[in-house]
Predict the 3D structure of the following.
Amino acid sequence: MATNRTAEVTWHGDLMSGSGRVDSVTSGAIGALDVDWHARSEDGAAKTSPEELIAAAHAACFSMALSNGLGQAGHAPEEMKTSATVTFQPGEGITKIALAVAGKVPGMDDGAFQEAAKTAKENCPVSKALASVPEISLSARLES
Amino acid sequence: MPRVQRQASAAWEGNVARGSGTLGGATGTFDALPFSLASRIEKVDGKTSPEELLAAAHAACYAMSLAGELAGAGTPPEHLDVNATVTLDQVEDGSHRIVSSELLARARVKETDQETLDRLAQTASEGCPFTKLIEASATVTVSATLEGDTHGD
């Protein structure tokens, strides 16, 4: 079964001095998020950006894929924390995504955890969709 | 221009079918958003999903790109509405894949015509970094319509 998710964005004016807003999404979970080019392309932003939303999508997708792999191995995670960092080079595009996960997984050894994390990184639907990003790195740490 | 990094974090507990997670962005503009497998592939239930966040990313990316193209042509938009729909589907081997992202834009722009808008809308998609990435595995479609500039905002 296909699943559709929609988002609505409004923009006023040109790229450099204009501004926009993510007005609404299917679930209603996020809304009224301001976006503009300066916040997107400079450090210290207090506004979200396409790259931050991609980071959130990838962190969530990877977490679900890894929980699936660990569960199938009989070791559902007690807790996992994942971060995704998207590097954006204006004029060039998205050049890197760094995934980092720390998991509490009872009964699992580090080798098997590393393997499961690698499989999740390769197979989660967002990783597949973003496979043309030049570098997607992974750091996985098992917590006791 | 210097490179820019944007970070988001997810916490997850339990297996994929019954577990659940929360999500936040480093800018603090969204925080503690719940997500789960059921809300991703079945009933939305007020929870976001990776595909919804990608739809938001694509709509925002495309809106900026189209604003840039229109401004470059000497006709900056008064107003753009962009709608992005990302579709996740089960493919032949049973796994899920993001198969498409559909962009719909409505533009209020003085002194342009539909033909010019169609051309700039296509160029804007090609110039949006996110389109470039997902085109490797998913279909991206673009449709833009010109709104009359007679009715106000």
Q: What stands out?
A: Chain A is about 35% helix and 35% strand. The longest strand of chain A covers residues 93-104. Chain A touches chain B through 87 residues (CB under 8 Å). The domain at 50-143 of chain A is CATH 3.30.300.20 (GMP Synthetase; Chain A, domain 3).
